[in-house]
Structure formats: C-alpha cells, structure tokens
TrEMBL record:
<dbReference type="InterPro" id="IPR017246">
    <property type="entry name" value="Snapin"/>
</dbReference>
<dbReference type="GO" id="GO:0000149">
    <property type="term" value="F:SNARE binding"/>
</dbReference>
<dbReference type="GO" id="GO:2000300">
    <property type="term" value="P:regulation of synaptic vesicle exocytosis"/>
</dbReference>
<dbReference type="GO" id="GO:0007040">
    <property type="term" value="P:lysosome organization"/>
</dbReference>
<dbReference type="Pfam" id="PF14712">
    <property type="entry name" value="Snapin_Pallidin"/>
</dbReference>
<dbReference type="GO" id="GO:0008333">
    <property type="term" value="P:endosome to lysosome transport"/>
</dbReference>
<keyword id="KW-0175">Coiled coil</keyword>
<dbReference type="GO" id="GO:0032418">
    <property type="term" value="P:lysosome localization"/>
</dbReference>
<dbReference type="InterPro" id="IPR028119">
    <property type="entry name" value="Snapin/Pallidin/Snn1"/>
</dbReference>
<dbReference type="GO" id="GO:0006886">
    <property type="term" value="P:intracellular protein transport"/>
</dbReference>
<feature type="coiled-coil region">
    <location>
        <begin position="74"/>
        <end position="108"/>
    </location>
</feature>
<dbReference type="GO" id="GO:0031083">
    <property type="term" value="C:BLOC-1 complex"/>
</dbReference>
<comment type="similarity">
    <text>Belongs to the SNAPIN family.</text>
</comment>
<dbReference type="GO" id="GO:0016079">
    <property type="term" value="P:synaptic vesicle exocytosis"/>
</dbReference>
<protein>
    <recommendedName>
        <fullName>Biogenesis of lysosome-related organelles complex 1 subunit 7</fullName>
    </recommendedName>
</protein>
<dbReference type="GO" id="GO:0099078">
    <property type="term" value="C:BORC complex"/>
</dbReference>
<dbReference type="GO" id="GO:0008021">
    <property type="term" value="C:synaptic vesicle"/>
</dbReference>
Length: 128
C-alpha cells in the first residue's frame, strides 16, 4: 500500500485502518491531558493556600520571620503551574480537534465506500 500498489480499495482499507488505530490513542491522550490539567489546578490551589498560611503564620509570630523568599518561591512555582496548565489546555484543544477530524474523515470514507459499493464498484471508487 505504501508503495502505491494494491489499488484504491487497498488504500481506502489502509486509511480506514489507520483512522481506527488513531482514534483510541487520541481519546487516551485527551483523557490523560484532562487528568493532568485537573491535578495542575489542584496544585495551584494548594500553593495559594500555603502562601496564605505562611503569611498568616508570619503575622502571628512574636518574632518576625522573613518568609518572603519562601512565598516568592511558591508564587514562582504557581506561575510555572499556570504555564504548564496553559500548554496542556492548548494540547487538549488540538487533541479535541484531531479527534473530531478523525471521526469526520471516518464517516466520509465510510460513506464513499458505501456509495461505491452501491453503485456497482466493489473494488474501489468509480472512475479510478
């Protein structure tokens, strides 16, 4: 098939198989990205909570501790979490579009094959 042999029916069969192979992988990736994004949101909330708690502890202490460097580190970590979350959100959107394209192409190819079979061309597309 890769070398061009086998005719249109073989190419269509190969394309259909490839689409069927890609669909579960795209869905699995989408689920993984969704899970990571959820954990990123949870991590960001924990970082915010910890920073607030550090400020509160610092205010309650009789001897003032300099917690600013730690809070800055937390805020820097939070910034990185937000950045990773944005990257994951973009990747998830691309996966969603890819999944939609795979489904659309599968339906289109299935309709073409059914139309070809119905018009008396069981070995491929008419005129090929």
């Amino acid at each position: 098939v890769a070398g061009g042999g086998g005719g249109p029916a073989a190419r269509e069969l190969f394309a259909e198989g490839l689409l069927q192979f890609l669909r579960p992988a795209v869905r699995q990736l989408d689920g993984s990205v969704r899970a990571v994004r959820e954990s990123q949101v949870e991590l960001r909330e924990h970082i915010d909570s910890l920073a607030t708690e550090l400020y509160r502890i610092n205010e309650d202490q009789k001897v003032a501790l300099d917690l600013d460097p730690y809070v800055k580190k937390l805020l820097n970590a939070r910034r990185r979490v937000v950045l990773v979350n944005n990257i994951l959100q973009n990747a998830q959107e691309r996966l969603r579009r890819l999944n939609h394209s795979v489904a659309k192409e599968t339906l289109r190819r299935k309709a073409m094959l059914e139309a070809a079979a119905a018009s008396g061309y069981p070995q491929g597309l008419p005129g090929k």
